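Discrete fold record:
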Amino acid sequence: MGRVSLIDDIAVYDRIITEKNHQRKGLATFLLKELEKIALSKGFSNNLLVATEEGKLLYETLGWKMYCLHTSVVIPAED
């Protein structure tokens, strides 16, 4: 699963997730490249990727560089 949001002149990639039993098979890399194709086809070449610390390690091997830190807060749903 993954998302790309096209805002102004920036493609923002977020929530690139591979289920545990499918990790380490190149699926996240494939997904990211497919999302990038979509962004490029619409004229977006400035890219910003939101990543977890674990994901950051993968993306750095793909040539992405850290621009700044990002913090998220999740408010759990009440039962």
In short: The mean pLDDT is 89.
